[in-house]
């Protein structure tokens, strides 16, 4: 897609950091990692991965709010089913994105089934 005029190791590292930042998402500031990469890097692949990671953060926060409300309204009953599904959604796609960033650094990763606002 893009020529490899950019440093592939730097591209791998920054892309993986963007996608891996979701693992510290309990701290809302974790979205700052992909925002910083978006602002600092001039690499188009890193910028695409950063935008995708920001969108994933926003989706995770939205779905966490929905799961939290539904769990509270049903006194925890729906939480027994929704929380494990939410955790799988929160962990598996970023792991796949990190692996993709390392195996094919010349292509950005697109998360399936998310809303893209950025």
Overall number of domains: 1
Please state the structural category. Answer: mainly alpha
Query: What is the arithmetic mean of pLDDT?
Result: 92
- Strand fraction band? under 5%
The percentage helix is 55-70%
Mass-distribution shape: elongated
Please report the distance between the alpha carbons of the first and last residues.
21 Å
Q: How do the SSEs run, as a string of H and E?
A: HHHH
Overall number of strands: 0
Short summary:
By secondary structure, this protein is mainly α. The chain has helices spanning 8-20, 32-40, 44-73, 79-103. The chain has one domain.
Description:
The longest helix has 30 residues, at 44-73. Helix 1 runs antiparallel to helix 2, helix 2 packs antiparallel against helix 3 and helix 3 (44-73) runs antiparallel to helix 4. By secondary structure, the chain is an all-alpha fold. The protein has one domain (8-103). The protein has helices at 8-20, 32-40, 44-73, 79-103. It is built from 4 helices and no strands. The mean pLDDT is 92.
